[in-house]
Amino acid sequence: MKQFNREERKVLFFANSGHFLTHFTVLIFPAIVTPLMKEFSLPLDRVLKISFLMYLFYGLGSLPWGLISDRISAKLSFNIFFYGVGITSILCFFSKSSTQLQFSLLSIGIFLSLYHPAGVGLISKSIRTAKRGTALGRNGIFGSAGIASAPFISGLINFFIGWRYVYLFFGIISIILAVLINFMKLEEQNIEDNTTSGISYNKKTDTVIPFILLCISMALAGFVYRGQTLILPVYFEKKVPFLYEAIKNINFFAYSGSKNLSATILASFVYFISIFGQILGGKVADRFDLRYAYTYFFIFSFPFIVGMYFAENVSLFISAVMFILFSVGMQPVENSLIAYFVPKKWRNTSYGIKFILTFGVSSFVVYPIGFFERNYGLSSVFLLFSLIVVLLTINNFVLIAYTGRKRRK
């Protein structure tokens, strides 16, 4: 962190804490799908729909929150975020029916939607341009840490004391962060906003078309990302038994929840690997043409999303690891592309638009998942995801063609 000054480190502390908490909270639900099926006596597709409104408003709230956070202080934005997530998480603890849980999750989604436009926007406006990609990469690492730890910690807490306590524990942590931020000075820094790596593109990039093309890719990528995170623990429980087979005869794990626990442990490991993707993506964003880097991350991920349909057990686990490595690794590059194409005064709003697309559109993935699972089996969903990766890669090449050759300033 020595490469960042004191004010930049302060910005990164709260932005990174919020990013961890956001992605952890979002991924509690997939880890507890099996316990919820048992508690509420519901099939898989009905349980997945309990989370629909949370994921929908997690996306839809991004644009209004982006507009608001462009106009209020960073400290107030983060106060609203931490207190809101903390209180609504505690509501989940007290939910006694699927309807109450659905309402509580909806409330969580509304406050979670504040983080990305406010947090990523704060970094893009407060970190020196030469270090922006690295800062976004480090911020992504904390998001990936939240993603990686959520299945394991949620599964572990559920195994011992029940799924409700996951929400209670992290709700309390969120409120503690809200209190802490009031003792710190946290404001956007006045930095020079240069173009990335001294590179500019043809003058026609002054139009909104490059951002629209980027939005198409982000929406498609978000659909795939949300879909696989939603079903990965359940999918591993069905098709990746090697860890369960290894631990099921150990007395400590000889309980009905051990299969779910083993699946959530494996899912956590998959998401842990994505941390290295974020590191790679941050370094790439500071060194290479962002447009090509963004495209190649998806090209490299394609064989592995296809492999998640065909493979089983250990080979399926390896395919999942590699797909997440590339599909999450592109995020610092994606956020840097937005920072390049969009003027600083609209930066939070642009990130709000992004997360409406990546999280709002992706919330509808529960419906094709339910359809494919009922009619063709859960693995068939990955053929749909593979087709979407092809479409967004083609769209990225259209973006490259439109913006033309890069030139040094």
Topology record:
Blueprint: H1 6-26, H2 28-31, H3 33-40, H4 44-50, H5 52-60, H6 62-69, H7 74-93, H8 98-112, H9 115-126, H10 132-161, H11 164-181, E1 199-200, H12 209-239, H13 242-247, H14 258-287, H15 290-310, H16 313-329, H17 331-341, H18 347-360, H19 366-375, H20 381-403, E2 407-408
Antiparallel strand pairs: 1-2
Helix pairs in contact: 1-9, 1-10, 1-11, 4-19, 5-8, 5-18, 6-9, 6-18, 7-8, 7-9, 7-11, 9-18, 10-14, 10-17, 12-14, 12-16, 12-17, 12-18, 12-20, 14-16, 14-17, 15-16, 15-17, 15-20
Q: Judging from the principal axes of the Cα atoms, what is the shape?
A: globular
How are the strands ordered across the major sheet? 1-2
CA(first)-CA(last) distance:
30 Å
Helix/strand-derived class? Answer: mainly alpha
Gyration radius from CA atoms, angstroms: 20 Å
Which spans have pLDDT < 50 for at least 5 consecutive residues?
194-205
Counting DSSP E segments of at least 2 residues, the number of strands comes to 2
Describe the overall structure.
This protein is an all-alpha fold and 409 residues long. Helices cover 77% and strands 1% of the residues. It has 20 helices and two strands. It has helices spanning 6-26, 28-31, 33-40, 44-50, 52-60, 62-69, 74-93, 98-112, 115-126, 132-161, 164-181, 209-239, 242-247, 258-287, 290-310, 313-329, 331-341, 347-360, 366-375, 381-403, and strands at 199-200, 407-408. A two-stranded antiparallel ribbon has the order 1-2. The chain is globular. The model is unreliable at 194-205 (pLDDT under 50).
